[in-house]
Amino acid sequence: GSVSALARVDATVPYIPSFSVSASTKKYGDAPFIIVPPVSNSDGSFTYTSSDTNVISISGNTATIVGAGYSTISAYQDPSGSYTRGFISTWFNVQKASPNLRNFGAIVKSLADGSFIVTPPDTDNPGSSFQYSRASGSAVTNTSYSANFTIVSGGNATITATQLESVNFTSESITTTVTITPIDPTSTYSDFTRPFSIGGFAIPPPTTNSD
Questions:
Q1: Which residues fall within 8 angstroms of residue 43, CB to CB, at 6 or more apart?
Q2: Which letter does DSSP use for residue 204 in this model?
Q3: What is the mean pLDDT of the segment spanning 144-154?
Q4: What's the pLDDT at 24?
Q5: Could you give the C-alpha distances from 76 to 16, 46, 49, in angstroms and in order?
Q6: What CA–CA distance (Å, rounded) separates 29 from 91?
Q7: Chain CA centroid to CA 39, Å
Q8: pLDDT averaged over every residue in the chain
Q9: pLDDT digit string (tens) for 45-54?
């Protein structure tokens, strides 16, 4: 005699040991890059998603950096042969970029100018404000991190411009020199008389705005 039974072999979940989106650190402003598919014992194709498209957007296997922050990148493997749908995810960090401050040239003013407004340096982060401070010297002064500096005396000083941190950029500082040139003093000298009999006498100084 004989008897038969139906035997069913179910597909198994593929083995995907690890997933790394990119071997190098990425920063805001970096170029798009290709996502390398995870190693798997299944030959099913992968599709990818990003949990925060304000950080990374994905089209096919190309990832485009949108902003600084964290996003979960998920890899989904299609069913194939003896394997079911596979899944693995990883965290990915896009770091803030440096604003690259530049073109903050030396400032030369006259003592007669009284005050001046500092022109901010060029930056890759146009959306964040600047604060200014006197780093050294006593020729100029300002208040409340203002760009408006008051000239105190002739001489030299250094001014530091600091751009504040923003969503996609770190804080950065740049320093320049300030030279305040002196002015000619205004002096007046009045005639004076002394009697011949006084002999020696002290000459009175002129009236002047210089000390």
A1: 80, 81
A2: P
A3: 94
A4: 67
A5: 10, 5, 8
A6: 19
A7: 37
A8: 93
A9: 999 999 999 9
Average pLDDT over residues 14-28: 87
* pLDDT score at 139: 94
Long-range contacts of 72-76 (CB under 8 A, 24+ apart): 73/19, 73/21, 73/35, 73/48, 73/49, 74/48, 74/49, 74/50, 75/16, 75/19, 75/35, 75/37, 75/38, 75/46, 75/47, 75/48, 76/46, 76/47, 76/48, 76/49
Give the separation between CA 26 and CA 71, rounded to whole angstroms.
13
| pLDDT > 70: percent of the chain | 99
Question: For residue 19, what pLDDT is reported?
Answer: 92
Measured distance CA(205)–CA(211) in Å, rounded: 12
d(CA 207, CA 44): 95
Is a pLDDT exceeding 80 seen at residue 121? yes
Residue with tokens 């006498």: 201
Which candidate, 103, 31, 28, 108, places its Cα nearest to that of 62?
31
Q: Beta strand 155-163 with 130-137: parallel, antiparallel or unpaired? A: antiparallel
Tokens of 179: 């030279």
Tell me which residue has tokens 């599709």.
Answer: 47
Q: Which of 139, 148, 149 is nearest to 111 (CA)?
A: 139
Structure tokens at 133: 């401070």
